[in-house]
Specification:
The chain is an alpha+beta fold and about 120 residues long. It is about 20% helix and about 5% strand. It has a single domain, classed as Phenylalanyl-tRNA Synthetase, Chain B, domain 1 (2-Layer Sandwich). The termini are far apart. The model has no long low-confidence stretch (mean pLDDT about 95).
Length: about 120
């Protein structure tokens, strides 16, 4: 996976501790990831509430999946489609471009991601 690139055309950087589809902390998108968990985002309260309202509660711990639950400020690999839905709803969280997998570009224009780049 070392040759995986981010949306800037550089090597993909680490997003978080135990996140992503592969739970390796990188927003890898293997063929088995039909959700395209490619967007490294910094959680906000508004996004977490929106996600729960859409049926994906990211705040509640789930020991079955060794999932601690997320809070504002945490980084996590989000599905590109869900991030784009949140953007259209006005609640998209900031992104870490160096850790956003280039696979996100199949769903989200680079200009849109750049508007949400964390500084």
């Amino acid at each position: 996976m070392a040759r995986i690139k981010n949306v800037l055309g550089q090597p993909l950087q680490l997003c978080c501790g135990n996140g992503g589809f592969t739970r390796e902390g990188f927003c890898y998108v293997p063929a088995s990831d039909i959700g395209n968990h490619s967007v490294c985002a910094i959680m906000t309260d508004a996004f977490l509430q929106y996600s729960r309202a859409q049926g994906n509660d990211l705040m509640t711990p789930n020991p079955l999946y060794d999932f601690p639950g997320l809070k504002a400020g945490d980084r996590w690999c989000l599905c590109a489609g869900r991030w784009l839905q949140a953007e259209q709803a006005g609640v998209a969280p900031p992104v870490i471009l160096a850790a956003v997998n280039e696979a996100a570009l199949s769903v989200i224009p680079i200009e849109t991601l750049q508007r949400y780049a964390a500084s």
